[in-house]
């Protein structure tokens, strides 16, 4: 062969000098063969006789061989592979009974999402027995050493069976190894901390392997970007005996809870692990994906079966959590005078966020979930940038292959919905509702939620209740507005009341009020708009973004104003705002602390609600008797601090 070129995926290669190859019935001889990468990054050198029927002696020296070139030569996919190979190997004996002796290394290797550390290997194969030592290095420190002695048939031809009868021996040793090496294996983990100690051994035969030794993790920590959580204080380990690996008090913390693992893994012929692991969670933060799902769970689940077809079953309580759904209203200014805006509410579908490729794996894809019961606990909320609704109830989760299915009904207990139309924002208190899952593979639950806002009109101080009904599905919610008046008001009139506190026909009429009064009304309206718009942003920031441990937060602008002297306006006092913060302190009890912020004082008072069942509940409050201010005889402005205790027994039934 005088010349040879190969244009491979990573580098072009060429034959350095002519080579003579002689083929015979029992020999394969060659003069020194040298193939070089054109940029000098790698080389392959072969010299001698390849063993066939007759004895041979062949030496192979490889330096800087890019794995992409190897994959390209074999016509395999090179898009998910990287790294380089070095090899120094001597092949002797015959084709039926060869001998192998040499060293090799693998640097900067990547196979899909698996990133290998620097690997060194030493091997000696003779008389159908392989002796090998494998060293794994990370940042110049030895992380793991594996010693193996295996009966194998590595004949240079096709054979019926490579594994031979005889004793096997594999031993893995790690002494206070930094767990940070896991980051080199996969991008699915980040900021790994802790130490690993291991002395694990496999003996016996290929058909009947026997395990012995231990694995121990101390002060471990790992972040899972795909789940948005970080597991800390990982301590425990496993011991090996016979054909099983048994877990020893393995425990880890996440959020404010913990997870204990028990059970173990049984090996069938070394190559087929069978899981039998139980997970005992106590308010364990399992997932925290912003704008998708946050979940702290308590319960016991079991994972059983082969690793790549395992089944998850059990019962969980979602102690705290948030399920996000699409927003409802496109933000735009509505012209109430324009007949084209009679629909008023322009709905838009906002794509839901999903777990990305950061946590996809063959294990999760093949995992089966069978009748996993999830009960909503003390504080589980359905939330978007416009709504914050507490849920109760139970759902059943199933999964086959990559299809999840959820069945069950969740009830809306309380919460608020913020309607945004143009520059105006109004808060609605949730009265009732349901979220129903029907086991469809798209996980798209039906919504039926009702919320109420009471408008205080600017003329006559009349109260106009406005009902917001959220229907449709979680992915494509719909919103309609209704009134309780007879005859019913149109949506145009309801939005007019929501925005301006008066009907649409009066928007362009001029009143008889003085210029100062008009200006004051305009200022108060503007402050009301800005404060109400700020309310939803504060609520979202406090609960969702900052993670303040509140189940409910409300900021409502003030609207009450009193004057000491009705003629001069001296001594004017205004309710600036009303704050409310709530916590669920049991499965049936909810505590709310209210704060009235007035220009002359601040008042705090609590409210307690106890729910007997889905229809009957008891509310009690300790609240001020009067508003921020009141008039005494003679026109004097005075602040009252009298309080009253009230009880309400509420029964509601949905037809």
Q: Which keywords apply here?
A:
single chain, mainly beta, 28-stranded mixed sheet, 9% helix
Overview of this structure, please?
The chain has 655 residues and is mainly β. Helices cover 9% and strands 57% of the residues. It starts with a strand and ends with a strand. Mean pLDDT is 78; it is low at 329-360, 510-527, 560-571 and 630-638.
Briefly say what this structure is.
The chain is 9% helix and 57% strand.
Number of helices: 5
What fraction strand? over 45%
Q: What is the CA-based Rg, rounded? A: 36 Å
Bin the helical content.
Answer: under 10%
Overall pLDDT confidence:
78
Q: Which sheet architecture does the biggest sheet show?
A: 28 strands, mixed
Report the count of strand segments: 37
Coarse morphology: elongated
Distance between the terminal alpha carbons, to the nearest Å? 90 Å
SSE-based structural type: mainly beta
Low-confidence stretches: 329-360, 510-527, 560-571, 630-638
Helix/strand layout:
Elements: E1 5-7, E2 12-15, E3 21-23, E4 28-37, E5 43-49, E6 57-66, H1 67-73, E7 81-93, E8 98-111, E9 114-115, E10 118-126, E11 129-138, E12 141-151, E13 169-178, H2 182-185, E14 190-204, E15 209-224, E16 229-242, E17 244-254, E18 257-268, E19 272-289, E20 293-306, E21 311-324, H3 362-366, E22 368-383, E23 387-400, E24 403-421, E25 424-438, E26 446-456, E27 463-472, E28 477-483, H4 491-500, H5 515-545, E29 552-557, E30 561-562, E31 573-584, E32 589-598, E33 602-611, E34 616-624, E35 630-632, E36 636-638, E37 643-651
Parallel strand pairs: 21-22
Antiparallel strand pairs: 1-2, 2-4, 3-4, 4-5, 5-6, 6-7, 7-8, 8-9, 8-10, 10-11, 11-12, 12-13, 13-14, 14-15, 15-16, 16-17, 17-18, 18-19, 19-20, 20-21, 22-23, 23-24, 24-25, 25-26, 26-27, 27-28, 29-31, 30-31, 31-32, 32-33, 33-34, 34-37, 35-36
